[in-house]
NUDIX hydrolase
Amino acid sequence: MNFCSHCGAPVRFAIPMDDDRPRYLCDNCGTIHYQNPRIVAGSLPIMADRVLLCRRAITPREGYWTLPAGFMENGETTREAAIRETREEACAEIEVGGLYTLVDLPHINQVYMIYLARLAPQREPAFAAGPESLEVRLFSEAEIPWASLAFSTVTLTLEHFFADRRHDGLAGDRALADYPLHDGVIRRW
Amino acid sequence: MNFCSHCGAPVRFAIPMDDDRPRYLCDNCGTIHYQNPRIVAGSLPIMADRVLLCRRAITPREGYWTLPAGFMENGETTREAAIRETREEACAEIEVGGLYTLVDLPHINQVYMIYLARLAPQREPAFAAGPESLEVRLFSEAEIPWASLAFSTVTLTLEHFFADRRHDGLAGDRALADYPLHDGVIRRW
C-alpha cells in the first residue's frame, strides 16, 4: 500500500496513537487502513467411500490436486462460499454438513474452513472441470495422490477424513453432522 | 474506495474480465482491489457456573455488555486473537478450549468465532476493565443482563452455553473440549 484509497495522498506505515502495531496511515485525511486475515472456504465432497478432488489449472500449484475452495466474498456466508467454490471449480452441487477442518495459516494471513459435504446424487453428470480446474475426479483412499496434493491444508483434511472413516470400521456410513471438527495451525508453506 | 492504493490513480467499480461481481479496478496500473469478510474472534470465559462479560466503553453499543472479542489481526491465529482480545478488554488470562460459536453475518461482511475458555485460576485479581471496557464482571445465568447485551452474536452464544449447561444437569462440569460447536447465520442488526 502506497496511497490512501480514500483521498489519494501518500500513506506512511507507523503505529497509530492508542494502538500497538503499525498500520498504513493517511496524514491527509486521517484514515487508518487496517488489514486483516482472509477466509478460504471450501468443501470436502464425498460420495460413498470416495472424495472429489480438482486438479488446478491455475497458479499457484498448477497441476496439483486440491479440494474446491477459495476466498470468501463479501455478502455471503461461509457455507455459501463453500457451495459457490464447489460449483465454480468442480461444477458440482453439494449438500453441506458441518465445519470439518479449521486451519489457521498465520504466515499468509489466511484461515481455511472446509465443510464436509455430499455430492447431490440427482444430477448427471455430477461434476466436471470448471475454468480453474484441469480435471475433476473421485478418489478412494488408496487412490489419493498424496505426493501431488496442492496444499498442506488439503493433506491435513484428507488425513483426518480417512482416519475418521477407519474409526467407523466397515459400517462406514456416518451422517455428515456426526463428524467432528478438526482444527489446527500450519506455519509453513 | 476512491483511489488505487498501489499507484494513487482514481479507481472505478466494475466487473473485471473473467469475474462475475464488481470490484474496484485501477485502469492505470491494472490492480484489482478485492474486499473480503473479516473475522471477529473472541472468547466465552467461564469460571465455575459463571461467565465473564465486559461493559463496552466505546461505540458501537457503548454501555452494553459483550464478550471479549474483536477483529483478528494479520499474523495471528484465531485462538491467539481470542486470547489477545480477552487480555485487552478484560485483563484476563484464559485457557482456550474449542471453537464454540461460528456465526456468519453476511450483511456486515463478518464471521464471528467465539472460543470457549476458562479463566486461568492462578492470577489475582483474575480480571479488570481494559481501556475499551467500563466494567468487567462474572454473571451467573440468573444475573445475565439479557436486555442490555451489545450484539445478537453474544445473546446467541450465551443462550447456547446455558442450554448446554442445563443439559448437563447438576453435575455440570463438562470439559472444555466436550462442548459442541454451534453455528448459525444472523442477517439483521
User: Anything to note?
Assistant: Chain B has two domains: 1-35, 38-185. The first helix of chain B runs from residue 78 to 90. The interface with chain A takes residues 1-8, 10-11, 18, 21, 24, 33-39, 71-80, 98-99, 102, 104, 106-107, 109, 111, 131, 181, 183, 185 of chain B (CB under 8 Å).
